[in-house]
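Hey, can you fold this?
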Amino acid sequence: MALELHPLEQFKVEPLIPIHIGGLDVSYTNAALFMTIAVLLITALMVLGTRRGALVPNRLQSVAEMSYEFVADMVETNAGHGAEPYFPFVFTLFMFVLFANFLGLIPYTFTVTSQIIVTFALAAAVFIGVTIIGFVKHGAHFGRLFVPEGVPIVLLLLLVPIELLSYCIRPFTLSIRLFANMLAGHTMLAIFGGFAASVGLLAILPVALDVAILALEVLVAALQAYVFAILTCLYLRDALHLH
């Protein structure tokens, strides 16, 4: 029997605990399970890694402290002065995306960030939050973000709509970037893995390619979490400082 490959089967959301309230399906799915696992792992890392606060840290404490310092430096460098109160939000985003990406690399798990609804929800939270911060801090003057300085009035008729459109599509570009990278990488892994399984003893080359792609996916998983967090910082800087 020929081996049938379904590289997109791994992205199927399936209910684990069916729950229906009226006509609304709120079932607990495999995606919800791995989001829960990611949150529990992050919580365990931060709680267990910081509860003793030893002068000579163990490995767990070192990872927790390095994660904290890495994101704190990112916020300070890219979001600018006054962004310190928003560090917990950026830190939570970074750690969630990072753990969700890495969890998805484990065989027989589910890649939460390969779901556009998940990445869009995260990006929408960033967009809405940053916009609210901008209006709370600057009021109606927040509109100056869309008006480039030193530009003739005639050109403003063209540039202001472009700036406004560019601002409004941020949640789409932010979510699609993460979703597309995770979807493409895992699809390639599934295709080459299935091909290696189908050719038997001739699988050396596809297996080698799979190993190379997996190494690349580890890098992409970390890089995409970084990109998501740093773009959040840049959007936050625009809201705080209007530039």
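Oh, and this one too while you're at it.
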Amino acid sequence: MALTQRQKEVLDFVVDFIDENGYSPSYEEIGRGLNLASLATVHKHITALQQRNYLRRSHNQSRSVDVSPKYVEERRNARAATPPPALELPLLGRIAAGSPVEAVAGDQKLNFADFVGHEGTYALQVRGDSMIEDHICSGDFVLVERSAEVRDGDIVVALVNGSETTLKRFYRESEDTVRLQPANAAMQPIRVPAGALEVQGRVLAVLRKFK
């Protein structure tokens, strides 16, 4: 029996989450990521996918969803057979955000390969307002380069205590302590032992879609 559209979305979300984070999503993360109404709805879709042998899960564990190798291989082959999208757009010039200036058309190209051409690059959608003073708002998308090597001041995706991820500026306060600094004056920095922190990537760019 073919998958429903929503079942495929759940399955693809799980695959992408594991690829990006290295561990399975919780039911809560699946629900938030796909705007599902309740955990019962998530459970229903997971059960249906398990019955079709697309997913495996262990009981009494919060991160226990594994994708069948067959589906991973099928999706990889389908993507390999699909021509990559164009990574260039016409760069027609520059526009003033202050006083108007004369418009001059150009014939340059803006090449997005600098942002997405590397296989270690992935996207995340931002939730929350902790980085608004760096002009990263809830609902924006960030392009992240997978890397554990970052410099002080970089905006990073950080995994804290192996369970919670956050987007913050990274600072080494000492050999033993790291400060994760929000860009929101109303919020306090997060200080964590260096050993409890795993940097999963640094932010390359921010994308915002206006509807």
